From TrEMBL, chain A:
Name of this protein: Nup44A
GO biological process, one term: cell division
Origin superkingdom: Eukaryota
Entries under Gene3D superfamilies matching the protein: YVTN repeat-like/Quinoprotein amine dehydrogenase
Localization, UniProt: Lysosome; Nucleus envelope
GO molecular function: structural molecule activity
Keyword Aminoacyl-tRNA synthetase: no
InterPro entries, sorted: Sec13/Seh1_fam (IPR037363), WD40/YVTN_repeat-like_dom_sf (IPR015943), WD40_PAC1 (IPR020472), WD40_repeat_dom_sf (IPR036322), WD40_rpt (IPR001680)
Family named by the database record: Belongs to the WD repeat SEC13 family.
UniProt KW Cell cycle keyword: yes
WD repeats: 8-40, 268-302
Entry GO CC: lysosome; nuclear pore outer ring; Seh1-associated complex
UniProtKB/TrEMBL annotation, chain B:
Protein name: GATOR2 complex protein WDR24
PROSITE patterns per UniProt: WD_REPEATS_1, WD_REPEATS_2, WD_REPEATS_REGION
SUPFAM superfamilies, sorted: WD40 repeat-like
PANTHER family for this protein: GATOR COMPLEX PROTEIN WDR24
Gene Ontology molecular function terms on file: zinc ion binding
Domain of life of the source: Eukaryota
Pfam families found in the cross-reference section: WD40
Assigned protein family: Belongs to the WD repeat WDR24 family.
Residues covered by region (Disordered): 365-399
InterPro entries reported in the protein's UniProt record: WD40/YVTN_repeat-like_dom_sf (IPR015943), WD40_repeat_CS (IPR019775), WD40_repeat_dom_sf (IPR036322), WD40_rpt (IPR001680), WDR24 (IPR037590)
Coiled coil: none
Amino acid sequence: MFDVEPIIADHKDVIHDVVFDYYGRRMATCSSDQTVKIWDEDDHGKFNVTSSWKAHSGSIWRVTWANPEFGQVIATCSFDRTASVWEEVLGEKVSNSNAYTRRWVRRTTLVDSRTSVTDLEFAPKYLGLLLATASADGIIRIYEAPDIMNLSQWPVQHDIANKLSLSCLSWNTSTYMVPQLLAAGSDEAATPTGKVFLFAYYENARKCVKMETVNDITDPVTDVAFAPNAGRTFHMLAVASKDLYIVNIRGVTDSTGNAKLELQTLKFSEHNCPVWRVCWNMLATMLISTGDDGCVRIWRMNYARQWKCAAVLKAEGGGPTYEPTPPTPTMATTASATAKFYKKGSIGNQVPWH
Amino acid sequence: MPDEDAEPATVSIRICLEGHANALALNKDHNQIAVAGRSLLKVYAIDNYEFTEVGNMRGKNQNLSYSSNDVAWSTLDSNILATAATNGVVSVWDLSKFGKQKQLHVYNEHERTAHTVTFHTSEPILISGSQDGTIKCFDFRTDKSVNTFFSNSESVRDLKFSPHSQNMFSAVSENGTVQIWDLRKIDKCMVQFTAHSGPIYTCDWHPTRNWLATGSRDKQIKVWNMDARASLEYTIHTIAVVGRVKWRPERTYHIASCALSLSPNLDFVAEDTTNELRVHECFIGCAKELLLSGQKLADLCERNAEVSKKYGKHNATTLWNFIKLFYGSNHFEPPFEHRSSFSNQKNPLNARRALQTASEELGQDLNGDEAPHENVADSEDADDLGGVGQQQPPPTSSVILSETQIISEITFDNFELLRNGFIYVGPADVTKALAFPDTALHHDVQAARPQLDLKVSDHEKSPPPHVPSILKVSHIPPIRMWEPHQFVADALMLQNDVGDVQTALTVLIALGDARNLLPLEDRIIEHWFHTYVDQLQRYELWNEACAVINRAWMRSVRQLNQASTVMHTNCGECGRPLGGNVGWYCDKCRSMQSAKCCVCGLIVRGFYAWCQGCSHGGHIEHLQQYFAKHAKCPKCGHLCAYS
């Protein structure tokens, strides 16, 4: 089922982040070796490095793509306390072909943070070219490029200070509910308080305020991800912490006419170890989580509106290791034949199935 | 999860048996189950939420002390059962008889334990496999075996007739071999191969593909493609010895297995998620193939149901079929004259008309119904019908009846789909879990059925002359109309919640004017449009996105197509902007020079390509040819850098 194809990234140190662009045709990786690599898919579906450059003077934590409407733009954030915005420009024509050389040019460096910038993400496109960053001193900064043709100007629009250091953030891309939501998580281990915060961004009023804290999650949070806009009337936020959480967020209006959030936190302990990263597929029908156990888990919602782990992919030590295939006595077996079925669940005598 | 009990997707029903159950078998209608085991042979009817015993073949007067290893239900006659016993006896039972007569035949031919018995799908023939290594074929109209097949192995553990070939059956044995036999060829098997390193306990043919699954003591389930010569398709590693395997109906890649072990907690459903995880192909395929309009709704539904089925979206298939049933009839298609006056939420008249229409379509005879209409003409009761009941006495009872008919019709058509749940019996070492494809439909339909409580009382108002005197109906409580609209809306919301906005929105578009009946907020629908268009564009399906936008009935969505469509052109002669003029006519030069192709000099009709830098252009194919050899503009020598 999973034709796992290892890609030799040739980064000299730990890879911290890998992100696809809007169409899934390009990929960006960043690493502790202070470089960023851009990968392009060729006609055979293989990804090849088309650009690689030293982007920061510290470990690069995250990389994020802007909507292609704004051109080929990425942003990176680093331990060196800065975040940078990069744009791809076409150079001169390569002789005897129609292709051009491509170069990534640093358009700006955002130096407002006094500590490591831990995460950043471009806002959904209808808000304009907007970039939110989270830093270890607990400040969320929202930058905006007022002129999308000139990416060197990124004035800070908002900065929101928090008591806890922040490790991750995610924009909600759904247009269904105003205000626009921004979630952030903290990896602070010392305090037993809620670690996921929800902020409301009001485009017209140009303000950004904290709306809610998810009090059910008190363990350090390493990643948050809003599900892509999939027509639902509620929003789903996946949280990677000591366990995997999915927070269903519903916008309601209380009797005084104020917008309020109704939260429902679901906990999944199948990883049995800290969860590192969470990621949704484009249609928001699948959630992928990775954990300390070396497993990638795929979650799906069934028709009873419950999330179930649909598959586990073990990838330890470089390549995928499935359970070894015992040699079949008479028949030749294909290598992938063993990996096709997964235990879906078990039916106990005492426990009703649903 | 908090709402776990709110919507049971599957139902577990349980019963405690007095003996050890070794095997069970469902009859062909899936409403009765036979359980066989150590001094146990019973038949239960499967009711909504419980088992009811309907037959016990180990009564006092049938003092047969042996225990059964296997039980099978004839596919021809729903009263015929066969069992294979540990002492080698194969018995055929007739449920329609009484007492000792129930035991139709006792074939005492196997020398050792009979492990398995199975019926032919169309002939009155059964075959049994035994520890003595033989397979015997019986005709249950006679009392002797017809044929004996010698498997040349120590023990035949399981036999299954192939659903793909009339006379073919598979036999698996304890030495790990699989044999394929032809009923007519008793001297030698057709195919033989070694499948497992340990004894094979079970096999099952895939209902649609030519696959055979085998389960063995080596804790593996293997799926063999039997097309030419057997080749291994999949291997599933399980945690225990495999006792039984069973393919899930309607799902290509689902197989259930149970463990052969004394620990009761080991059965599980293994599932291949290949099909479900192939969402990209599914999404793109559906986006391209689902029809949005252009045909009659019934045809649209039928076709889209097929497309959904092709991509493995069984719930979507059911939904399309449902839409076809309720909205597909002609009576529903013209826009309702009351649409504006009645709010789209509560409209019992339309709802009832829908039911009647649908029931007429289903061939329900409404005239044969005796329920007296006068009973309902009570003004109090008719109030909730919006006063319409006064002018036109509603045939209430027939509505109920026809509705049940609809339900039974759906149930019949999609029986496999609607039977929802695991049938689970016994603490035994061999249990089968039979799963049917999930659908929430059945429960919703059940829940939506109005209950007709007939109150019996002595003081009736006006007894209609033809009502029998014993049962006097004085008051029928107001009957809640069952309208499909809320239900369909809920189904669409569910579809959407599981991430399938594609189906939800396509249904809505296909419904045409009938969509106004659904109690869905415009805000949600608008949100769905934006989402789906966004998804299509991410998959670079521009044409499909455009088709969806064009069919939108909301301004904000239709405007998506009109953004950034202005093109600025300049005159190729004088360089002045041509904005506001007709075509390529230049006001200043008073010429149509710019409309001509700068390569061939003719006026361009169709695609016109031009350089934004020098405003010269022409036929796109001419320019392509020209710029393949040159880099500069054919007219002015500008470096156009055409690529």
